[in-house]
Amino acid sequence: MSKTDYPVTPAVRFLRAHKIDFEPLLYAYEEHGGTAQITSLFHLNEHQVIKTIVLQNEKKQGLVVLMHGDKHISTRNLARELGMKHIEPADPKQANKWTGYLVGGTTPFGMKTALPVYVERGIWDLDKIYINGGKRGFVVAIAPQDLQTLNPQTVDVAVDA
Description:
161 residues; 4 helices; 10 strands; 30% strand
């Protein structure tokens, strides 16, 4: 793909600024299609398709968890692991305010507000991951080690979907 064949989002600017190699993948976004849609369109293993979930704690402070597409987050275990009382999904309007991205297009790269990022342990074991590129219908393939540019903390909070 040439540089003009995909959107130049804040995430793409972040990846370029950090010299992270990525493969852009565009698709027709479907509301509530989620990782299953990406998996079927590109014939991927859903375990490699990474969700960017914006959450908030009891103090209404935001945080981001990167999770396998075929798993869910145990917010109870996450709160326990992080020493917080309660963690819940952020309201979509609040998530947009913090990240600058719409739900379905959220990525941890190039967020408006620097939120703490937590990566599910198993993601580090993958050869390649597919994560949102900052726009609905746009994912990028990168090496999981490239997530280190976000200074993430590793967590172990995945439960079966």
